[in-house]
Amino acid sequence: MIITSDTEFFERLGWKKGEETPYAVMEFFNRCYEFALQEIGYKGTDKNILSAVIHLDETTPHLQLYYIPVVDTAKKKVYEKGADGKVLRNEKGSPIQKKDEHGKSVYEYVPLEQPKLCSSDFWSERGGQLSYGNMQNSFHEQIGVHYGLDRGEVGSNKKHTTKYQWQKQKQEAELASLEAEKVHAEEVIEQAQTAVATRDKALEELKPLQGYLDAFHEALSGELPLSPTKLRKMIIGLTTEYKRLEEEKKITDKDRENLFSELQKAERRIPELEKYKEFVAFVNEYAPDKLDEAKRTATERKNAPKPPVKSTKNWWSK
What we know:
Elements: E1 2-4, H1 7-12, H2 23-40, E2 49-55, E3 62-67, E4 70-77, E5 107-117, H3 119-124, H4 131-142, H5 163-220, H6 228-274, H7 277-286, H8 288-303
Antiparallel strand pairs: 1-3, 2-3, 4-5
Helix pairs in contact: 5-6, 5-8, 7-8
């Protein structure tokens, strides 16, 4: 038996993972334990309780209780009797079982000399197929309403997820997220490579300027027959152009540094992605449908419409 609620409920009681458990949380679980003894305890005691532990180290606190279905009565058929008090029999000589007004067989419970293990009798005494629903109604009336909790869906066929299933679902979600991050990392690397190529091209285009500067220095040394007026114009023009190109180079260098930083971040993610290789191989072998589902999820996230961007200038530095 597992008794719990959602994480928000326990946080309202003051619970925080990793910190000392508040009195309100322990009081809640103590009341839940008393309820369990009342419902499934042998004669209201803990004699048939094997273990009752409050788990506080997982996503949501919960009381996990193990018990054995001990009964001290046995289910016995009730037979039709004649006026003489003897059991009536059919034409084959078999005793005729008594029926109720709805045509269902009638049973009675008789005391046993010694208690016994019997799951069917244990739950039959508590309402048979209605036993769990009855227990949940009682829990809501005795505990849930005092904490502002809602009654669960009546008649629901939902099943509790095992710890293994929960871990498996969590790993599948992480796998889909990592696949999406891997795609993003590959895009960042490609963009960084493109930016580096653009920068190298820009540097290549700056090379002709060196020829002008060489000519300028030759003119200053008097090796070229330029007049002072032409020389002055040449100095002003070259100085202006040089400053403009120098500013462009600074911007390009800064952009390259930012892109290189992004490239390093992407490369650091590679070992983390590699460690999931074995898990992916395992899922691919034993649950290929789950892997396909994770891939589809990653593809849908990648192709989902992106919000409009106000400015693309230096986007990689944000």
